Amino acid sequence: MKRVVFNQKGGVGKTTIVCNLAAIAAAHGLRTLVIDLDTQGNATQYLLGTRAATVDRTIADFFESTLSFSLAPAPFVTYVTSTPFENLDVVAADPRLDELAVKLEAKQKIYKLRDALRKLKGYDAVFIDTPPALNFYARSALIAADSVLIPFDCDEFARQALYTLLDNIEEIRADHNEELRVEGIVANQFSARSKLPTRLIDELRAEGKPVLEQTLSSSVRVKESHEQHKPMIYLDRGHRVTQEYVALYNSLHRG
Questions:
Q1: Which residues of 116-135 are buried (b: 16+ CB within 10 A; e: fewer)?
Q2: From the CB of residue 166, how many other CB atoms can be counted at a distance below 10 Å?
Q3: Mean pLDDT for all residues in the chain
Q4: Residue 211 to residue 108: CA distance in whole angstroms
Q5: H and E: helices and strands count for the chain
């Protein structure tokens, strides 16, 4: 399963969702890979901590290699870095992604990630973190993935952006990846006590949008997990938010 977590809106918790779901998959014994396509590199930092600065090969090295022809290109596993967590690896982000994007667009390398992942062996689950924009890298991820999970932060601006996002995903599905499916919209940093988030979720469901039953709460413990570079399943297995992530993971895999 290759899953991309994407929203064109920033600050909706994509990285936190990617890393925590990937960590749960790894804890379940699945050999799991996170691919960090965001130049900010937050997923890389989350999983590697200070080691993020010393990674030998990154996702930028992979994309750069596609700009020149080779009879024997390096396999994608060459760009993988192990994390401190069993069964969990990462392909690290790199600030050079920004400068490479124009060249990659010009040479029409939009299918290279898809092709590389089709050849990748040894992983049961792949999670792709994306930048908060429908740029070359986000489109590459959507073309490469089997499914897309959409974080939603429950305000009116986010709802308007969601309609555009769903249209964009449908266009990519129709033009480039007919196998891509929307797994669902997950309400993040959700407060059941507040009327607005509950109303927005109810209205989206009434419109037929695929809003998942499981929501994710906000907690300072999640920020502590960022600081300590430990996804919640490793930091505090019994915490309420950890259990929400486990329930989300289970619901996705039942579906």
A1: bbeeeeebebbbbbbbbebb
A2: 16
A3: 94
A4: 34
A5: 11, 7
Residue with tokens 């407060």: 191
User: Considering Cα of 149, then 211, then 249, then 52, what sign does the dihedral take?
Assistant: positive
pLDDT of residue 21: 98
Cα–Cα distance measured from residue 90 to residue 43, given in angstroms and rounded to the nearest whole number: 9
pTM above 0.70, yes or no: yes
pLDDT in tens, 148-202: 999 998 877 888 889 999 999 999 999 999 999 999 999 998 776 678 778 889 9
Residue 68 burial class via C-beta count within 10 angstroms: exposed 0-12, middle 13-18, buried 19 and up = exposed
Q: pLDDT, tens digit, for every residue of 101-131?
A: 999 999 999 999 999 999 999 999 999 999 9
Q: Which two tokens stand for residue 38?
A: 């965001």
Separation of alpha carbons 160 and 7, rounded Å: 12
Please determine, for residue 68, whether its predicted confidence score (pLDDT) is greater than 70: yes
Q: Which two tokens stand for residue 102?
A: 């124009």
- Whether 20 contacts 201, CB under 8 Å: no
Alpha-carbon distances, residue 46 vs 17, 52, 118, 131, 204 (angstroms): 11, 9, 26, 15, 32
**What is the DSSP track for 113-144?**
HHHHHHH--S-SEEEEE--SS-SHHHHHHHHH
